[in-house]
Amino acid sequence: MALDYLSLLNPSQAAAVLQIEGPCMIIAGAGSGKTRVLTYRIANLLEKGVDPFNILALTFTNKAAKEMRARVEKVVGPAARNLWMGTFHSVFAKILRSEADKIGYPRSFTIYDTQDSKTLIGQIVKELELDDKLYKPSLVLGRISAAKNKLISVNQYLHDPAIKADDEAALRPKIGVLYQQYQQRCFKAGAMDFDDLLFNTNVLFKEHTDILNKYQNMFRFVMVDEYQDTNYSQYLITRKLAAKERNICVVGDDAQSIYAFRGADITNILNFEKDYPELQVFKLEQNYRSTKNIVWAANSVIKNNQAQLRKDVYSENEDGTLIEVIKAASDNEEGKLVANSIFEDKMNGHLSYDNFAILYRTNAQSRAMEEALRKLNIKYKIVGGLSFYQRKEIKDLVAYLRLTVNQNDEQALRRVINYPKRGIGDTTISKLITTADEANHTLWEVVAHADQFMPARVSNPVVGFAEKIKSYMVVAGKEDAFEAAKFIAKNSGMLEELYADKSIEGLSRYENIQELLNGIKEYVDDPEREDKSLAAFLQDIALVTDSDLKDAAQEGEAVTLMTIHSAKGLEFRNVYIVGMEENLFPSQMMITSRADLEEERRLFYVAITRAEKKLTLSYATSRYQWGNLRSCEKSRFLDEIDPQYVNFKFAAGPGEASPFQHVFERRSNLIPTAPRKVQATKYVAPADFTPSDTSKLQAGQRVEHAKFGFGVVSALETQQGTTKATILFEEVGEKVLLLSFAKLRVH
Length: 747
Ligand SMILES: Nc1ncnc2c1ncn2[C@@H]1O[C@H](COP(=O)(O)OP(=O)(O)OP(=O)(O)O)[C@@H](O)[C@H]1O
Ligand SMILES: [Mg+2]
Prior knowledge:
The chain is globular. It is built from 32 helices and 24 strands. The chain is an alpha/beta fold and 747 residues long.
């Protein structure tokens, strides 16, 4: 039975589905049915008698591939199972499984995951006797990965003067050598990492035209979803595969390109027309997902970007409610207000919790949200990330804290005895454990007296560790939970270890530790709290770490929490975007240039356009940072939304009762709190504030900042050409600023 495409699709969508031959590009706004067009296009090809083995459809995530296959199967039946459909990595790994021998690898090659790669790099760094703090495995792997995504081979890397200058400026001249050694070792071990899967596919196609030919004949129809996020290596693969039949169809939205930091190159879209002059371009402008207000708001934001293809997205759906903006006094209050709003909307609208999503810029922001949802007994699931207290770095620091309070906590002891690394090897640890078992002592007793039964060379680091823990016990006996935890985070070496890791993951681990300390500070600052000790705090979070999580992880309807990056392509009835503050979103680390700011704005655009019916944005006017309450400014992005689509809603004061107030109080003892008092900054910048040249700035110098006032530089650190200054300000305390934007006046 032939499908009636015109009843399922609008005329432009149907035209894109029915144009089978030749190159085609669908550049369309969010929610305009791009993925739907790809799905029906495949169905149409199958209906026209094309063999499913001749169709290659590439998606960005496994989840998207699975969903697309299911949708096609619904339309055409089991033939959908024979489609070549998947992520770039999964499809080309499959091809390399039958061809790897042509480029010298065994067909049974191993695939190294990121952890394997980092371990190998760590070993090589050690063998070459390089400084492992400077050559952090994740950082080195990041450089190697970026090179591979641009198809820069070891040889090119070693001989390119610009790359050499870059690495030398970052004081890491040996990256090229590490890349070389790493590649040789992988090759010898018959292993490929994720980037090699694409890099080697390119090598294979370049060196073996007969093989390229074979796949060109096989994949008569090539399709790519989310094309705006492909990198150079992926771009070249698709271009080569389509070179013969030229039946390539890509769909994407330049306004949603959000992976530049992983090498995605928006010029791939812009250049597509040059590669295929006979190209047919389809524009889809009608958004089927969202209300008019949401679409208009999204348009008003993205038009601030200069680098974009012009298109006007519109909606024929209802106007819908205005976009709500919630202002909260602190991050915890933001969590409460968001949780309350979800509860209220669910009750009023008879909705399911599946209809709600909370999106944030960084994973660390989930803590305040998780706590507030738990207090109202609202089930939630975290997509593409772990619950805050399940994260490795949080478990590590919590293990130190537990050990400080209870030295017999053997799990905690084993977790941190050699983390950060202090030269206590697995053999030593086994010896300590068997000694404890044999002598019927606790592991701690044996550790604390290791010098009595081990040679000094082996026992010194063990005893040193025990001494550290003993000193933490003293601090915890005198100070409150926050002071103790801060001391332990620093003294254990954990903070330093995480700070040195400049990868995206490293950065987020460091932020998470900061977030845990913020949580502890709020705990001790609570005026109602009598016992502020570390032991009391741990007891409190023990309730959070085990039993609650099992409930939260249960199947069934739940609010979805995730970063905006993982929300790509998805849709929810009601969406909350939280943490709409300067330095958080746009992220401070990401805005060193206009291009970076535009990428952050595209990310905001992606977030807005996930919502179908209702969008709520929230921000807090203060947040704890390193235990200090800092005032925050609302995000510039909030001001970019045309105000006619926005309803500013402020934090409920003590007098304004919500119709559900009694429910909140019963369920959570949630007492409306007065906004926390933030110490006002007295400093006022002079009208003629002109920044000085800071290229020769040194620690110890007195400086002036237009917002933070006077301070003294306590440290300077340059990495990859970026200098960070740690400054102790008189009024606002310590801040770490990027020198290139700090606009300091040197005194
Ligand atoms: N012609 C149509 N009639 C009815 N519903 C449609 C139509 N086109 C798209 N939709 C619906 O609109 C929503 C958005 O479609 P889809 O996810 O394909 O958009 P998209 O362009 O891929 O979005 P994104 O940019 O977020 O990836 C889906 O729920 C889809 O089923
Ligand atoms: Mg899509």
